[in-house]
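A.,

Following up on our hallway conversation. Structure tokens first:
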């Protein structure tokens, strides 16, 4: 079984590109996951490269921003690619499910003056989500 579950914060906004073959959206971002204990060298987090496809990628592009705390379930993918004649190994998590791990109010207090974190909300603090995402919401 190949399953990984991570909770952490995005270290950057998702970068979305589209495949040449069928124009499928592909989102890439990284997640910082706090360690339970601080290492001797001062490292307090592990960093995971994430990749999401299709509707998950569209959702990431539209709603995820640097600093957003997320719960991600997926599978580990490893391999190599060649650059300048040198094989370079890679390790990434293919996103299968993604959920917000904190409320909008918690996000607002974490980011200070940029309280919306680039996300529009109504007068009650609820995020506006377009109708075409209703079936793909991670918390349905």
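Then the amino acids I'd put at each of the 140 positions:
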């Amino acid at each position: 079984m190949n399953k990984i579950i991570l909770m952490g914060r995005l270290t950057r906004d998702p970068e979305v590109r589209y495949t040449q073959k069928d124009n499928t959206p592909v989102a890439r971002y990284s997640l910082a996951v706090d360690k339970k204990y601080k290492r001797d060298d001062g490292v307090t987090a592990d960093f995971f490269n994430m990749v999401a496809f299709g509707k998950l990628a569209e959702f990431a592009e539209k709603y995820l921003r640097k600093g957003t705390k997320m719960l991600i379930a997926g599978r580990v993918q490893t391999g190599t690619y060649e650059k300048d004649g040198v094989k370079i190994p890679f390790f990434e998590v293919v996103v299968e499910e993604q959920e917000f791990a904190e409320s909008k109010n918690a996000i607002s207090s974490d980011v200070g003056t940029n309280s919306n974190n680039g996300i529009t909300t109504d007068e009650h603090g609820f995020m506006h989500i377009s109708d075409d995402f209703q079936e793909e919401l991670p918390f349905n």
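Residues 4-102 form a domain with the OB fold (Dihydrolipoamide Acetyltransferase, E2P) fold (CATH 2.40.50.140). Curious whether your intuition agrees with the design.

B.
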